[in-house]
Amino acid sequence: MKKKITLQSALLTLAVLIAALVALFPVYFLVVASLQPTQYMFSRGLSLVLGDTATLANYRTLAEYRDGLYLSWYKNSIMITVLQTVLSLFFSSLAGYALGVYRFRGRGLVFTLMLLVMMIPLEIIMLPLYKLCIGMGIINTIAGVILPFILSPICIFFFQQFVSGLGDSFMEAGRIDGCTEFGIYFRIMMPLMKPAFGAMTILMAMNSWNGFLWPLIILRTNENLTLPIGLASLISANAQKMEVLLPGAVLSILPIVILFLFNQKKFISGLTSGGVKA
Amino acid sequence: MQAKQVRTPWNPKRILYSKKLAPYIFVAPFVASFLIFFLYPSIETIRMSFMSMEGFGNEQFVGFDNYARLFNYHFGNAIRTNTIYTGCMLVIMMTIPTVLAVVVNSKLLKLRNMFRAAFFIPSLVSALIAGIAFRLMFSDMDSGLFNQILHLFGQESIAWNMGYSTGILMMVTLDTWKSVGINMVYCLSALQSIPSDIYESAEIDGASALRKFWNITIPMLKPTLIYIFTLTIIAGYRMFTESYVYWVDTTPGDIGLTIVRYLYQMSFQRNDMGFGCAIGIVLLAIIMTINLIQLRGFGMFSKEKD
Lengths: 278, 306
Description:
The complex is a heterodimer of chains A (278) and B (306).
Chain A (H helix, E strand, L loop, with lengths): L1 H33 L3 H6 L13 H8 L4 H33 L5 H13 L2 H15 L5 H5 L6 H12 L4 H8 L4 H12 L1 H17 L2 H6 L8 H6 L9 H33 L4
Helix pairs in contact in A: 1-14, 3-14, 4-8, 4-11, 5-8, 8-11, 9-10, 11-14
Chain B lengths: L12 H5 L4 H27 L2 E4 L2 E5 L3 H5 L3 H21 L2 H10 L6 H13 L2 H11 L7 H8 L11 H28 L4 H9 L4 H29 L3 H6 L12 H11 L3 H33 L1
Antiparallel strand pairs in B: 1-2
Helix pairs in contact in B: 4-9, 4-11, 5-9, 6-9, 7-9, 9-11, 11-14, 13-14
């Protein structure tokens, strides 16, 4: 009996291993492509294994490309992701926390507004929002990219669900000890919300790092672009700069994958504890 | 703060202790952001959709003209493309992530955490970056990966990005690769909150693995599946990056032209902002209608069960 289970388990693991290799293949493909001289890419076709032609030449080209333009894109992306993630976690968790633990007049209304923002895609209100940003003078700036989206409805919803499950005995204890309502949030509840913060950090950072349409509209000059927008500008049909595009794409994946690998367990258990359930 | 509250003398510190005031302060940033960056642009979208504009200047009221202009060949094509694309994504997202989640949750599987990470990593990659890899794989040259696969089966090379259905296939492939992982994680987190004694008592009754899947797992996952269903519809109709990365400059023959792509082209390449707003309003109408029908559908299912 025991032997049979081991066989089953081995077969399942093997099948899943094959599926995982298929899933990761495009990333592998990109890495391998970035390490080959681009002049052969179209004539001979791309080889799927690295032979003697492997070279870091593309990465050198990338570093030197227009006086380190790629580095500015990288910096912009990091700045935007860090700022947006930190600000949206702070403000969204505050709102979600208030909706979850307090019973106040207007709570239902705020909750409905949050669902409304969640249901209506940005693309619909994008043009007047763009006009507004022109009026505010934040076009082509980091503020223009993040300011309209500092409050994330999904994040608010998640924190609301999460704190609803915490119970208010901690809060009462805090009040008896003479904490202010703000002190209760910062000193007592925030540490309890750690799993929720863990899960939402990854989700928010991922959305921000990969954001495309809005930054595409807001950012104008080359040195202010983020990684996806900058790389997109290299795809244009007339002049594809493969030797910059490919290494640039590979390096742009790294930070977010590293962030995830370090928080992997917290991410899934955090999502479970909050219960992303409609 | 006046005579009525004589009993406790007013003290600025009391604000900090007020249980009544605190929630309003906590939700204030959200409300402010909602009014400025959501409500105001929403009203403006409606207003501007009735205007003829050049960029944001020269506004002239034109009634329903912009909406009337939407009855054209290109917009029809865009709606059709989004609808076929969303249909494909729904079929895929309602099946693969669920099965994958059950598998990576199985105790029979070794190295479970490693596999969970492996399947989730594609979701971390932006559609644009992934698109760079998929563009190469879907290359129309004989050396392209998918053409090489066709050669193995004795087929001729295909110019993938020049055909309507192969164009949709390219976008569906890219988005499937990108979205299976995150939806698997949603299913996985729902699976982990199913109490294990349900399965144990089913085992005592002699239920097979398949029966447990159909009669326990699927019903318990229903809220999550509805959530994924809704998100997939919204994401399907607002799709943009997948189209942009394959057809960067133009969409010849409307291949790869989606609703948001059309909105983008009309507003930013033709400067026709009023028309762009009308496209936005129609997009909203489409999404809302489908979501209402769909939520009704699911609601009726649960009534039958009770």
